[in-house]
């Protein structure tokens, strides 16, 4: 598998996963957040709002994956947002303590996947530069 193929596949996977997760949060509210079922209406409202934002984030990944070549600047920007989310989770861990185990798993995934996405960001643009004219 080439870096360009991996980039396009990961961008699509990110897009579909984020849209699905975001819509799940919009539809289920607190029930979509492990350990937050009884958090109350304020957290439910916040979670549904951020679910919509996350679905939009996924649509941005899908947009990027449909471009030819996949734009490196868009991948870097979207990945920076993803990494900022992981850093926010680490800050929460330091300030508030250990969350539900699933949140820790997501943090590990976000911290692992972000460097990979940064590394792949320009794969299609580079592949286009290497094509003979």
Element layout with pairings:
Layout: H1 3-28, H2 41-66, H3 72-96, H4 101-120, H5 123-129
Give a short synopsis of this structure.
With 133 residues, this protein is an all-alpha fold. 78% of the residues lie in helices and 0% in strands.
Structure description:
78% of the residues lie in helices and 0% in strands. By secondary structure, the protein is mainly alpha-helical. The chain has one domain (3-126).
Instruction: Tell me, briefly, the overall form.
Output: elongated
Strand content: under 5%
Count every beta strand, where a strand is a DSSP E run of 2 or more residues: 0
Q: Radius of gyration, rounded?
A: 17 Å
Strand and helix order: HHHHH
Structural class: mainly alpha
The whole-number mean of residue pLDDT values reads 94
Q: What's the helical proportion of residues?
A: over 70%
**Number of H- or I-type helical stretches:** 5
